[in-house]
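ARCHIVE CARD
CATEGORY: sequence design from structure
SOURCE FIELD: tokenized fold
FIELD CONTENT:
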């Protein structure tokens, strides 16, 4: 097991970054969101379910680039497909046949999809889907779950900078798993109810992740159809990790539009929205483009990725490995006097220490795991990939056993001090 950790290069690169980049590293990968000084800031290379930081430390990777790596880093079949396309070119005046082939494969896989479009990021797609819903219904009000994340655009960003009250003027929030709260939001929207946007399960920041309560989705599904509104599924985080037909299948409901991104291209930049035939005309009227959106390399990679996800039945593997990991972590914690909860789907697990509000224990645990060559995020859900097998999970659990033991020692020492 590698012994860690020096973060000299990470720190020195960050100092250089801070001089020429606002915040040094922006967004969710900022060191401020991790454990500053005690976890890596910059990556160097990856292979399968491992990566190396700029100081040469290696990690079993349980974040997978925050989700896009679903098969493993630098997957040979994906890279071969991408390289073949790269030799012919990527960015043209027109789309290539890859776009049509990908849309055909995509609509064949996602069970409710009659059409698909492609972009680069998740936020491109959620914002566009909201516009399509408004175009289709000619109404304004958008219902969303309080604390849900749908991207970085003004209507949904969790950030504060540069926003106007008007950006959120037509948004009404409701509580996850609370049908009464949803109904009262519907009442407020009245005749102007355009759409509701939901993630397949609830993964707010800093709290246990929550699956839909029995019949929650079905109750609100009936309600929005009755009122002629559009149901948008934001499947950007979970898509293709839970069910290849779309995560709604895992929870027994059917959306009108659904947005995908992370696991679509195994790290190649591509996102997608799928829709029902009834929304196709409205979709055609909402302008959609970007400088790189026809990029053929990412489309070739996504084609191959979807093929492998199906061939190897990756969601079933992720669930199995996720359960092994979660059960093993709970047992290891118990052996050393800690009580933890693993929430969310096993393929996208989230760890909380019972009774801990401020995540100090998560931070201490993540630091101890990083020292032992395992990268666990202290505050965000994790992601499994197809390259995590029983051996890697076993290696992780040995590290976790030591980490929980050493955390106990730290706590006892600080209690004694
Ligand atoms: N929705 C969800 C549920 C997400 O997890 C994310 C990305 N974390 C987004 C939207 C936004 O995607 P992107 O960062 O690619 O714009």
């Amino acid at each position: 097991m590698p012994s860690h950790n020096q973060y000299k290069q990470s720190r020195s690169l960050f100092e250089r970054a801070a001089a020429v980049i606002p915040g040094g590293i922006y967004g969710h990968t900022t060191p401020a969101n991790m454990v500053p000084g005690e976890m890596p800031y910059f990556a160097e290379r990856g292979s399968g379910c491992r990566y190396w930081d700029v100081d040469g430390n290696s990690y079993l990777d349980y974040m997978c680039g925050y989700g896009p790596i679903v098969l493993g880093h630098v997957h040979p079949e994906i890279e071969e497909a991408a390289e073949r396309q790269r030799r012919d070119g990527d960015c043209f005046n027109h789309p290539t046949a890859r776009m049509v082939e990908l849309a055909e494969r995509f609509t064949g896989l996602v069970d409710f999809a009659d059409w698909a479009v492609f972009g680069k990021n998740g936020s491109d797609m959620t914002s566009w889907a909201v516009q399509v819903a408004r175009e289709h219904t000619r109404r304004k009000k958008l219902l969303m779950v309080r604390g849900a994340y749908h991207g970085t655009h003004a209507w949904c960003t969790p950030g504060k900078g540069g926003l106007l009250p008007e950006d959120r003027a037509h948004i009404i929030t409701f509580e996850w798993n609370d049908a009464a709260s949803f109904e009262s939001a519907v009442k407020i929207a009245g005749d102007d109810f355009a759409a509701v946007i939901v993630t397949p399960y609830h993964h707010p920041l800093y709290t246990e992740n929550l699956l839909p309560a029995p019949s929650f989705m079905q109750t609100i599904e009936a309600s929005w159809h009755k009122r002629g509104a559009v149901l948008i599924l934001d499947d950007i985080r979970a898509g293709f990790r839970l069910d290849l037909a779309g995560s709604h299948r895992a929870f027994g409901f059917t959306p009108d539009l659904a947005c995908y991104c992370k696991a679509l291209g195994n790290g190649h930049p591509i996102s997608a929205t799928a829709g029902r035939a009834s929304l196709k005309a409205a979709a055609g009227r909402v302008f959609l483009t970007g400088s790189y959106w026809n990029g053929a390399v990412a489309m070739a990679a996504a084609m191959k990725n979807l093929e492998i996800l199906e061939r190897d039945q990756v969601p079933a593997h992720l669930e199995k490995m996720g359960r092994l990991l979660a059960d093993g972590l709970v047992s290891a914690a118990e052996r050393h006097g800690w009580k933890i909860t693993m929430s969310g789907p096993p393929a996208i697990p989230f760890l909380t220490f019972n009774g801990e509000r401020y995540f100090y224990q998560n931070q201490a645990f993540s630091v101890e795991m990083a020292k032992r060559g395992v990268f666990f995020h202290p505050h965000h859900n994790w992601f499994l990939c197809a390259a995590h097998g029983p051996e890697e999970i076993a290696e992780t659990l040995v590290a976790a056993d030591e980490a929980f033991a050493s955390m106990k020692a730290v706590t006892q020492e600080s209690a004694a001090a």
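CARD ANNOTATION: Residues 179 and 219 are 7 Å apart (CA to CA). The mean pLDDT is 95.
SHELF: design records, drawer C
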